[in-house]
Specification:
Strand 5 and strand 6 (172-179) form a beta hairpin. The protein is α+β, with helices and mostly antiparallel strands. The chain is built from 25 helices and 30 strands. The strands form six sheets. Strands 17, 18, 19, 20, 21, 22 and 23 form a seven-stranded mixed β-sheet that branches. Strands 3-2-1-6-5-4 form a six-stranded antiparallel β-sheet, sandwiched between helices. The chain has a five-stranded antiparallel β-sheet with strand order 8-7-11-10-9, with helices on both faces. The radius of gyration is 59 Å and the shape is elongated. Helix 1 (3-15) packs antiparallel against helix 7 (198-240), helix 2 runs parallel beside helix 7 (198-240) and helix 12 packs antiparallel against helix 13 (436-448).
């Protein structure tokens, strides 16, 4: 009935004044009837609106969050409900008490409840309050899959009209409700007015009817608008979503597909209406897929909800496609099964990608297995750690090397965990003084240093060479190579080298000691007034001793050169004086053989240079001595000239030309090798060790020069060498060479303690010191020397290094550790042992200076003056 017609009827009734009672009764009955009509209309509208919202929510949920997780209602469901709430904020046609409530029942038994108020006084609450849910009868009916309306009492005891609906895809119950009182109130008021105010009804009936009916009309109009908006929203979501909606009846036959089904699949939906799911799919080929399909059909028959069921079919072009479907059974209010509702999506691309990925994984697995097989057969150990320094893989050889910690080689264990576990178990040979943690931290430092190579000793004595490299991804790849045999050979070589050095040291001492005695006694003899014949004899003895000493020095020099222990010491010196001094050493011998010895020095050469005076003299002496040895007629010429100059740097060339026997080309090729001579008869005829030229070549190399020879058999030879040196502006005075030495004198009497076990050396040292006016006390071993220091006072100690009972090093240590006034007495080592390492040991033991035997008297005198801080010894003028 339209409001206008209704209003006119009330006007006509109002005109019947005489029927006041009848009019009043009619008004009451009319109000009650109108209330019942409005209640039924409200029931239908509320149910339609609730059902519309259920469809809207389902579509919104799929559109906004396709993977709905009911265990996370604050996720996709929460997002959807918040949009529904926003819709009702602008909805005014549902009454003051109208509201919607929502509930989600999850698989783990939790229930989430959301209530929205109506008419601009909306409130929302999402909780897991089971008590609230148990009191909500309409919600229980909704969650059980039913749909309908009911007049009941809510949790607050208020009588309500409720419509309930179930969204199966979300496992979501929806209840729309309005208080009965709100529906009933207008009509109760109408009845009271009709009974007690008949006259007023008659007068104002038309107006009152109009005013009472108008809110209902507006309310119904608002519900209709909301329903239309909900339907439009549902259609929009359904059209825009990539998923489609479907519905089955109680016979499991399709009754509905949304429009997006055909768009997404290319299948005509109308051809599927009235058909069951199974017949429209391709027959499964494998037993496994047949079983899956059979289980799915059984679930449908058992009215079970399902999710993510994937099956294969074909589109209109007979192309194979893959579809995924989810569904929920729905029931009538009395529990009767009505069918299924659900969603579907085309997952063909996803399945194809997964199949392609599966094929790629299988290929990668095959390649990985091949790689692992190849790595396992490597003779060396292999290991790989990822960017987090956790083990990825290792081969069997790696586990064999580290047997004690092999059980720790589990992928995912960190490098630090593995080595710490191995260290605790004694896997590694940890050096003394290290605890496990110190060793682990040091090993970690080396490990983090990418591209590191180190050697590691295991507890079983084996040695591994470790090479680790950083990968582009930030991980580490490492190899372990067993170098035990190489390490043992190296240690044997080192032991052999030590034995060689010790042998040379011992031989040096044993040979040099008697030679020092011979040369020392000869020097003492030369200090006396001798006849010319006696002087020649004494000098002959001295030269012979020096020759023997030169041979010994050659052997020691060769050893030191091989060990790389000779260093060039550059000093400023008078260059011409060196040449003259070296030549004069051989003048007498050349005269004896009737040979000439000439010197040619370019006038442009500097007076002084900065170079190693000792080594240049040694090379020249060797070449001049060789020329003398192999020349019977003619003579030898020593020449020096400058090849080039750049600023203060000059290159000098020395040539020693003889008229001797000459050399063949074959001999020249091997001449500068150790122990090489022209042939085996050479050493018998001419003597020598064959070391001189080898030593000369190595010394020239150290001075950045070259050495070579040009020769023809029977025509003589020219040996030459070059050196790089610096021009010196230092004016070094000439030191004339004389046949007799100047004598040393002392200005002060000293009390000197001499520790020496050799009788000859005792005699030489005592004679030299007593001639200088000093008091000398001699002790034959270190123990007697220490005892004398504790009881007597001395100015200086001359200490032999090698003595019986106690050597000089131990005696020096005891003296330095003592408490006597002699604790800090100057101590000079006198030793025939000239190995550099041993000489360093003497200084570290507490000796102040080292002088070699045979005694170099100027060096000894200078050392004594320096240590006593006084020029006590001087050359006589």
């Amino acid at each position: 009935m339209k409001p206008k017609n209704l209003f006119l009827q009330k006007q006509q009734i109002a005109l019947i004044v005489g029927l006041i009672v009848i009019a009043a009764g009619s008004a009451g009955l009319w109000g009650w009837g109108l209330y019942n009509a409005a209640l039924e209309q409200q029931r239908a509208g509320l149910l339609a609106l609730t059902r519309s919202q259920a469809q809207t929510i389902a579509a919104v949920a799929r559109f906004d969050a396709r993977d709905v997780n009911a265990d996370n209602p604050e996720g996709a469901v929460g997002t959807t409900l918040s949009q529904v709430i926003d819709t009702y904020r602008h909805f005014e046609g549902f009454g003051k008490t109208g509201s919607f409530s929502f509930a989600v029942s999850t698989a783990n038994g939790n229930n989430y409840y959301l209530e929205t108020g109506g008419h601009k006084h909306l409130k929302s609450k999402l909780n897991a309050d089971t008590d609230v849910l148990t009191k909500d009868v309409p919600m229980q009916l909704a969650l059980s899959g039913h749909s309908g309306t009911i007049v009941t009492t809510n949790a607050n005891g208020v009588e309500i009209l409720a419509a309930y609906e179930f969204v199966d895809s979300l496992n979501l119950g929806i209840v729309g409700s309005i208080a009965i009182q709100e529906i009933r109130a207008p009509f109760i008021e109408t009845g009271i007015i009709g009974i007690f105010s008949a006259i007023a009804i008659i007068i104002f009936g038309a107006v009152a009817s109009y005013l009472l009916i108008r809110p209902l009309i507006l309310k119904l109009a608002g519900q209709k608008k909301a329903l239309e908006a909900s339907e439009r929203r549902f259609q929009d979501f359904a059209m825009s979503a990539s998923e489609w909606l479907w519905e089955m009846d109680e016979d499991l036959k399709f009754t509905y597909f949304s429009d997006s089904f055909e768009t997404s699949t290319g299948i005509n939906a109308q051809k599927l209406i009235g058909r069951a799911r199974q017949p429209i799919t391709n027959s499964p080929e494998s037993a496994e897929s047949a079983e899956v399909w059979q289980n799915h059909i059984q679930d449908l028959k058992d009215r079970m909800p399902f999710s993510g069921f994937i099956y294969q079919t074909t589109d209109h072009n007979d192309n194979v496609i893959w579809l995924q479907s989810s569904g929920q059974p729905y029931f009538a209010s009395d529990g009767t099964f009505l069918g299924y509702r659900g969603t579907g999506i085309n997952v063909t691309e996803k399945v194809q990608i997964e199949e392609e990925n599966k094929r790629e994984r299988e290929k990668a697995k095959i390649a990985q297995n091949r790689l692992i097989s190849a790595i396992d057969i490597l003779e060396d150990a292999f290991v790989l750690f990822d960017s987090n320094d956790r083990l990825v893989m290792c081969n069997e050889k790696y586990k064999q090397f580290y047997e004690k910690s092999a059980d720790l080689f589990v992928p995912g264990n960190s490098f630090e965990e593995i080595i710490r576990g191995g260290a605790v178990r004694g896997q590694y040979a940890i050096p003394e003084g290290y605890d496990v943690e110190d060793w682990v931290q040091e090993r970690m430092t080396a490990h983090r240093n990418s591209n590191s190579v180190l050697e590691q000793q295991l507890e079983n004595g084996r040695w591994l060479k470790i090479a680790e490299r950083k990968t582009p991804e930030g991980g580490y790849v490492g190899f372990r190579v067993d170098i035990t045999d190489l390490k043992n050979a190296q240690q044997q070589a080192e032991l052999a080298n030590i034995a060689k050095s010790e042998f040379l040291t011992a031989m040096s001492h044993e040979i040099r000691t008697p030679m020092a005695g011979i040369i020392g006694l000869t020097d003492l003899l030369l200090e006396d007034e001798l006849s010319d014949q006696q002087l020649d004899l004494a000098q002959g003895i001295r030269v012979s001793g020096q020759n023997l000493m030169a041979i010994l020095n050659d052997i020691l020099d060769q050893s030191k050169l091989e060990a790389g222990k000779i260093e060039i010491e550059n000093t400023d010196f008078n260059f011409r004086h060196l040449i003259d001094e070296t030549v004069q050493l051989f003048s007498a011998k050349y005269r004896e053989k009737g040979l000439n010895l000439d010197v040619k020095i370019d006038a442009d050469l500097p007076q002084s240079i900065c170079a190693d005076r000792l080594r240049i003299g040694q090379i020249l002496s060797n070449l001049i001595g060789n020329a003398l040895k192999f020349t019977e007629n003619g003579g030898t010429t020593v020449s020096v000239r400058q090849l080039s100059q750049e600023d203060d740097n000059i290159c000098l060339k020395f040539e020693v030309t003889d008229t001797g026997i000459g050399l063949t080309k074959n001999v020249q090729d091997k001449l500068f090798k150790p122990f090489a001579q022209a042939d085996n008869s050479t050493s018998r005829i001419y003597g020598g060790t064959g070391l001189g030229l080898s030593i000369s070549r190595k010394l020239v190399d150290l001075m950045h020069g070259q050495i070579d020879v040009s020769s023809q058999p029977g025509e003589g030879s020219t040996f030459w060498f070059t050196i790089l040196c610096k021009k010196s502006e230092l004016q070094v005075p000439d030191e004339p060479v004389t046949s007799r030495k100047k004598k040393w004198q002392s200005t002060k009497r000293l009390n000197i303690l001499v520790a020496e076990d050799n009788d000859i050396n005792q005699q030489i040292i005592r004679t030299i010191l007593t001639q200088l006016g000093h008091d000398v006390t001699v002790r034959e071993n270190g123990a007697d020397t220490v005892q004398s220091v504790e009881t007597d006072v001395f100015d200086l100690i001359l200490m032999d290094a090698r003595m019986p009972v106690m050597d000089g090093l131990e005696a020096t240590r005891l003296i330095r550790a003592g408490t006597t006034p002699n604790k800090n007495i100057p101590i000079i080592a006198l030793t025939a042992d000239v190995v550099a390492k041993n000489m360093q040991d003497y200084l570290e033991a507490g000796m102040d200076e080292v002088c070699s035997k045979p005694l170099d008297l100027p060096k000894l005198m200078t050392a004594m003056n320096t240590l006593l801080d006084e020029e006590i010894h001087k050359l006589a003028s």
